[in-house]
Amino acid sequence: MKVLMATRWPVGGIRTFLHYVYTQPSFGDCRVKLLVPGQDPATDLAGYLPAPVFQVVATPSSALGLGRAVRRELKQDRYDLLHSHGLTAGMLGQFARIGRRVPHLITIHDMFLPKMFRGIRGGLTRSMLNRAVSSVDGVHAVGEDCAANFMEFVSSVPRRRVHAIPNGIDTERFVRAQPLDVRRECQLAPDTALIGFFGRFMAPKGFRTLVDAIGRLTERGFSRPLKVVTFGWGGFIREDYRYLEDKGLCDHFLQRPHTDEPERWMKGMDIIAMPSHWEACGLLAMEALTAGVPIVGTECIGLRRVLAGSPAHVVRPGDAAALAEALRCELADARTAEFSAYAAIAAERFTVTRNATALRALYDDILAGFA
Fold first, then answer.
1. Predicted TM-score (pTM) above 0.85
2. Same domain as 220, residue 148
3. Is residue 209 classed as helix, strand or coil in its secondary structure?
4. pLDDT band at 295, cuts 50/70/90?
């Protein structure tokens, strides 16, 4: 099967999704040309995605440049399927395929918030969105909450075309990984309490709530040295780190570069903190639970289903006081045995094999319906 794929923002969950899903045998017979804006993202992805499945091609950095590149590819070559990741890429793909006979699938990795559609401008945006995607052949949502959210705000796409296929991960990678000695790697005292924050520096990930929670912990005189280790660049990292500087908490945070071995770093932490305000589907929580590492998360949309039934402490989104108390309790109780025991259940729940098989079946269904 020959697939033309495009994404506007090839980072975070989209990047991880592509790596996990398309390394599965279900897609072994697929040849995917992936269009991504900018030379640097394309170079990064080329070394991260499986060969020979993927050919990664850089396009101009603008949204318009990406749309034109999709249009040009559809003119120059024949594809069995156009697959857009993210709503921006999906809307561009809808316009690019006008006059071209190729089915189009959009994968949704984000959530809509009511504030996006308030007022006259928001109403016009919602109307344009509904009109733009009304004729798409399929919508793949990466979780049940994500699918319900899409259908709430985009009523122009028939419900039969919206498919919830929850995310999955390479569970074996997280089960078998050997922990990294993070204290030695980062030259920290042996009794340092380690909290890992692996989210991007974007408002939905709740970094500032974590900063406020650490402030509460230190004000109460936490008994051990405390360090939050964060990863990667981009997003609003400068603004977020300025926020913790203003709070006088820099000594309790350590910024590391992006890592392609999150499983080893996770297993070297005492706790993973995931103070999200919302998620499409919490890949990080799946990874932490499968690795057997204690996690403190929130009951937000998209994350609540992942943490349900697990030993994780769950607090309200944005509640720094509750988050601080959950972190304190987890560090004091050291429930590593409980999380280690749950890891086998998590590995079965979150295996990407099931996700990949379902997505490949959706590919085939769309092609059969389009014939």
1. yes
2. no
3. helix
4. very high
